[in-house]
Amino acid sequence: MPARCGNSKTRCWPKARNGCASACNRNCKSKPTARVGFFPHSQRRLWNARAKTMHLRTVVGVVELSVWYGYDPAAHHWGCPIRQQWALSAHQQLSPGLQDRLAFTVTATGSYEQAAAVAAKWGCLTDDATLHALAQRLGARAEAQTQQRLATTSAEVLPQRAPSALTVLELDGWQVRQRGPGWGRKRTNQPRVEWHELKTAVAYRHDQAGQTAGGRGLLARKLVVSWQGEPLELGRRLHWEALQHGLARSRDTLVVADGAPWIWNVVADRWRGATELLDFYHASQHLWELGRAVSRGDEAQAAAWVELRRHQLRHGAGRLAAGPSSRPVGNANAASSARASSGQPADYGTWARWSKPGPMATGMNSGNPTNGDSVKMHPGGRGGPNQPCLERLPWYGCPSN
Q1: Backbone φ and ψ of 231, nearest 5°
Q2: pLDDT digits (tens, 9 = 90+) for 225-237
Q3: Apex CA 329: angle with CA 326 and CA 335, to 5°?
Q4: HEC profile for 242-277?
Q5: Do residues 62 and 71 make contact, with C-beta atoms less than 8 angstroms apart?
């Protein structure tokens, strides 16, 4: 990197008098006595150094710089030392400060087009294609850093903290709209827009959960991990991050989900022995599907059948009947037909035994933590005392033995 030595000084020398001229001639320009060019990473001098002009977009406009360009004998490639010092890519035209502002604008808005409009308001004219390329470049850099971090052993950040009685893990997947291979083209046979599932997980200690004055659930601190790809990779990342927040010393682990099979597979891969919890919202959905099937489309009859069991499910009042004896009169074959069409096993007529919810089942839900809308599940009916237990009921998303 070109550098200027700091021993430059103002020099004066005598001059013959001529009219009103002073006795001395002063040169007020600070001139360097030496210049050097080297690469910051290798600390080696440039070979075949030459001066080049570089234009850089900054928050105050385009800046023109005169920089050195040459060969790095240690890395065996040509490059610009000042770009290496500022962590700029080979052809990057955005300064680090402007790049940071634009990256924040992209994350704070809903689309690249909106981000470009907001950036124009604070004096940076750009387009959505530039912001998309910026997001791709920074995302690739962040992924490389994440892979390096995952290769190390995770250590708890605050080991002196008392162990938590319960660590809660919530996993879910949702669809995100992304650009397809045909985006921006006038004529193309490829899709311009594609939808992909983004898997998201939240982890927090149960002592970090609270309530507002109005009774709404509140988390003082939580950990959020997202991943687009294989479910087991999400489990690996979540497990590494959760260990930093005391998962290893937590006495119990609770997993809240919507019953998707991939979530139970991740739980079996990473947290064997964890308690699995199906949120009340999805349990109610399954009850409605079953109620409409056994009522043959009679909404009034289905509503009466479902609401009674939802109340039992929510408050843990005794025994919840989900088998043939609970069907409305005259629909003996409806439930079996519904099971056959949905691929449920023939022994689906199993009783689900519910007791009064215990402390572990209170305040857990995948949609809104700490609101109490949840149902504790454990395969094979291995439930603890005073805790709801679902016995081999695949309809509720519980993996059967």
Answers
A1: -60, -35
A2: 999 999 999 999 9
A3: 55
A4: HHHCCCCCCCEEEEEECCCHHHHHHHHHHCCCCEEE
A5: no
Give me 330's structure tokens.
């005259």
Are 193 and 211 spatial neighbours (Cβ–Cβ below 8 Å)?
no
Q: Contact 373/357 with Cβ under 8 angstroms?
A: no
| The pair of three-digit structure tokens given for residue 254, joined into one six-digit string | 């609770």
Distance CA 107, CA 151 (A): 27
Name 401's Cβ contacts closer than 8 Å, sequence gap at least 6.
379, 380, 392
pLDDT one-digit tens code per residue, 282-312: 888 888 998 998 888 788 989 998 998 888 8
- Asked whether residue 119 carries a pLDDT value surpassing 80, the answer given is yes
55: CB partners within 8 A, 6+ apart: 62, 63, 64, 65, 93
How far does the chain reach from its first CA to its final CA, in angstroms?
Answer: 66
Q: Which sign, positive or negative, has the C-alpha torsion 241, 400, 334, 320? A: negative
Q: Among 198-207, 269-278, 319-328, where is mean pLDDT lowest? A: 319-328
Residue with tokens 């850089």: 56
| C-alpha separations of 232 from 156, 229, 236, 262 in Å | 22, 9, 6, 9
